[in-house]
Amino acid sequence: MSGGSRQSELFAVPPQLEQVVVINGRCQVRTRDERRLIVVGGTVVAQYGVGDRMAEALGMVNLVEQGYAEQVDVARAFRCTARTVRRYQDRFERCGLAGLGRGAGYPRGRARLRTSRACSLLQLKGQGVSNRVIAQRQGVSEKAIRKRLRRLGWHEPTAAARQLSLDPSEEGVDQAVRGADPNLSALPAEPAPQAAAVALASSEGAVGGADPNLSAFASPASGQSRPATVAPPEPGAEPLPVSFDSDPADRRVDRLFAHLGLLDDAAPLFRPGLRIPGAGVLLALPALLDSGVLGVARQVYGSLAPAFYGLRTTIVTLLLMALLRIKRPEGLKEHPPDDLGRVLGLDRAPEVKTLRRKLRRLAAVGRTAEFGRALAQRRVASRGTAVGFLYVDGHVRAYHGKHSVPKAHVARMRISMPATTDYWVADAAGDPLFLVTAEANAGLVEMLPRILAETRPLVGERRVTVVFDRGGWSPKLFDKLIADGFDILTYRKGASRRVANGRFQKYEAAGESYLLADQNISLKLPDHTRLALRQVTRLADDGQHQTPIVTSRRDLSALEVASRMFGRWRQENFFKYLREEYALDALVEHDTVPDDPLREVPNPARRDIDNKLRQARSELAELQAQYGLAALHNPEQARPTIRGFKIAHGKIGRALRQALERVATLEGRRAKIPTHVPVQQVVSGEVVKLAPERQHLVSLLKMVAYQAESDLVRLVAPHYSRVEDEGRTLIQNALAATADMEVDDAELRVRLTPLSSPHRTAAIAALCDALNTSPVAFPGTRLRLRFSVGAPPQASEADISGRA
């Protein structure tokens, strides 16, 4: 037995793994054992052999024609262009299935490549000229060039040889780079050999004069299979991307490598400049990096596949957009991509369609909830003392689209309308930790156990006080939460015995003053037992209105109980602030996903009966009032008996008896109608709900941006006396300010322009000094950020004399 056969027996070849390409949130393409499946919503809609081009074209056409996916998504998944998909659609519409096949013979009307040009064709390919350039010179199509090269036995050179000879100055490469879509990102490709990465890193023609401090370069010992990233300089640090461009304003070579599947994310390359719009937003980078959002995103999502705008660039772009008050991807149309690109270290920022595509890919992974939990763990680890009290409140996002979605009561509009409810959990300072989207707008009583089940791994075994409003009032729920190790603090709901005014005492501390009455109460439980709690009642200044607060905490003073409860308004202010400044309610996507068809909803037939019954009872009450008024004014001398009174008012009596019969009939009909029915009996068509992933992801990133803004406000507080009233406005103005940027081998210096007044400028200068005490590197580089504020412009003699 030969050595090769022994090796094959000892080391069996593993079975081929299944390859999955995500088209969108509903559609996937699965390939295994030379068979390919097109799956839509878990259902296989097409299957064929990998080499069956006609069946593949038919599958692409059906995906677009049935509305399952867009042309761009289908083209990306099948590695073709959107024009190819449109051509397949046109052929199928004109000739049916036969139009998708390949006809015999050479296509009519297409120019042929002369046989005598074969030698020149091979010579041009040997020089590295692209097929597109050769086709333009020969006057034929690029497809004809590819076919002729295949017949001539042409083989592409090895990866090392091809990349060693690659020079941006060559004509073929220049044309290829110019033709590359600046917003295009490729699907995962076969990894390049290690020798190719080393050759690219060492080639002066590819790398040029790139600064080694701005980006990392692959080395023989790095072990990387493609020149996208190298080993981080420190354990746990973000891998540094590779750049093959020397001019920060011209990133064509990096875009080409991204298109070829050789680059996972573009390396930031900065160019110096004066008064760059929005460069002040870099002040927030230390706080953003402290949140760990980039590391968590890399841990949860991994990569966005080879792309110029990779995962790191996409996350940083969305965070800086939120801080610059670019509230949705469509807002990028109003900002020059070159200006925002200079802040990101790119030649231009991603545009609307690119950013939408990135969000769609992240949402297709379906790990947004895991992303939110990991962010909350990092926040709790850094601010553990602020989670002794957790505030839970629901925020309703109204929906104005065409889909039939569950309704919820929108308190600020005082109306019930289609909406989605998000429950936010905040710490004692009012900063958000995470959010949970409720299924079918479930109430707080139903959602609290689920929310606290996700909270328990964050806070450990310690007891935490949960603060919420009257929507979570339920003695049964209170008993369960206390048994699970949580304390409660909420307003009392429903009628309660009024506390005598003489029992109230005045409490004052830290600028707060309340009239409070402290007492013990007990609530009745469904099993007829009693739950002992504590009630602190506040008396308003008018001496009439009383606000009872119920808690299980007996170790707190009455003043602290009231102060903690009234601190719940921080969440209301947070919702209002994010609606106005961050467009929290803006709908990011209009897609829908299937919902549970057996989910029970209120029976609309019973609602109709209730409306009729309400009207009938109103008419009955009106007739009873008329009959009673007639009895009150009945002249006893004329009609001393009841019989006479009934005869005199027989018309009202008959109408009253008919109204009583109508009410009894409607009550009997309502008793036979179930209160709830499956939603599939109410909704005509498919039962759907709004796709939650993309909206949830964008809300989490806006939450991180708000947390960073809060951290900056806390840093500037010792240096700004009006921080309680104007702190966020000050930070917002500083982030939107223009700035000068200087870059060298080790630092990226950001010098902000002075603000509107000297005391505000001094506060931001103190903030810069605080940030410089622990400098951080710009994501994807080793450049340490240094902040300062420029000197105010000196007034000229003419200005001084004019003011005088």
For the largest beta-sheet, the strand count, sense and barrel status come to: 10 strands, mixed
The protein's oligomeric status is single chain
Count of β-strands? 22
Helix content: 40-55%
The secondary structure category is: alpha+beta
Walk me through what this model shows.
This protein has 804 residues and is α+β, with helices and mostly antiparallel strands. Among the domains are: 84 residues, no CATH class; 99 residues, no CATH class; 70 residues. It is 42% helix and 16% strand. The strands form 5 sheets. Strands 6, 7, 8, 9, 10, 11, 12, 13, 14 and 15 form a 10-stranded mixed sheet that branches. Strands 1-2-3-4 form a 4-stranded antiparallel sheet, with helices on one face. A hairpin with a 5-residue loop joins strand 13 and strand 14. The N terminus and C terminus are likely disordered.
Comma- or semicolon-separated keywords:
globular, 29 helices, single chain, 42% helix, ten-stranded mixed β-sheet, alpha+beta, 804 residues, four-stranded antiparallel β-sheet
How is the topology of this model organized?
Elements: H1 3-10, E1 19-22, E2 27-32, E3 35-40, E4 43-49, H2 53-65, H3 71-77, H4 82-95, H5 118-126, H6 131-138, H7 142-151, H8 159-164, H9 171-179, H10 194-202, H11 204-207, H12 252-259, E5 273-276, H13 285-290, H14 293-301, H15 311-323, H16 337-344, H17 352-365, H18 368-382, E6 389-398, E7 407-410, E8 415-426, E9 432-437, H19 444-459, E10 464-467, H20 475-483, E11 486-491, E12 505-509, E13 512-524, E14 530-539, E15 546-551, H21 558-566, H22 569-581, E16 592-594, E17 600-602, H23 604-632, H24 642-648, H25 650-671, E18 676-678, E19 688-690, H26 693-716, H27 723-735, E20 739-743, E21 747-752, H28 758-772, E22 784-789, H29 797-803
Parallel strand pairs: 6-10, 10-11, 21-22
Antiparallel strand pairs: 1-2, 2-3, 3-4, 5-20, 6-8, 7-8, 8-9, 11-15, 12-13, 13-14, 14-15, 16-19, 17-18, 20-21
